[in-house]
Every structure is written in C-alpha cells, then in structure tokens.
Design goal:
single chain; 86 residues; mainly alpha; elongated
Length: 86
C-alpha cells in the first residue's frame, strides 16, 4: 500500500516537472507532504504517551491529513472525539 502511494507521488512530481508547472504548486505539494509526515510522527508520539491514559488515535490517511492541516488542535479534537464519543 505504501509503495503505491509513493509511486503516485513520484509520478505526480514527474508530470509536474515535465509539464513545466510553476514552482509554487510544486512547493505547495512538498510542504503538504512534509506536514503530513510530521502529523504521522505527532500521532505516533501521542499514541505512545496516550497509552498511559488509555487513549489511542488510529494513524490513517484521514487523521494524518486532519492533524497536518490543524496541527496540535487537530490532535486535541481527535483525542476528545476518542475519549467522549467512542
């Protein structure tokens, strides 16, 4: 599964480079990818620390994108949903 995602991202980069798309779009994609990777790392750290309190947030594409966009408030909202609703 992860090889498919990496392949799609690499194909998108090659298409953007060949088509001569502006550097702004490419830099936006790179920044977004970095934010998602950092979000996965933050979710992992939260799961390690949250295990002491019995909290676990699954790490998947939707949670990674949400935390990538919202940051720490995204983790807090996911933890609140996990604690109060689920």
């Amino acid at each position: 599964m992860s090889y498919a995602i990496i392949g799609v991202l690499l194909a998108a980069v090659v298409v953007l480079l060949i088509s001569g798309t502006s550097g702004k779009l490419f830099s936006l994609m790179v920044k977004g990818s970095i934010r998602v990777v950092l979000a996965v790392f933050l979710l992992f750290l939260f799961n390690v620390v949250g295990a002491l309190a019995g909290l676990h947030i699954p790490i998947n594409a939707s949670t990674a994108v949400l935390v990538g966009i919202l940051g720490i408030p995204g983790i807090a909202s996911l933890a609140a949903i996990q604690y109060f609703i689920l």
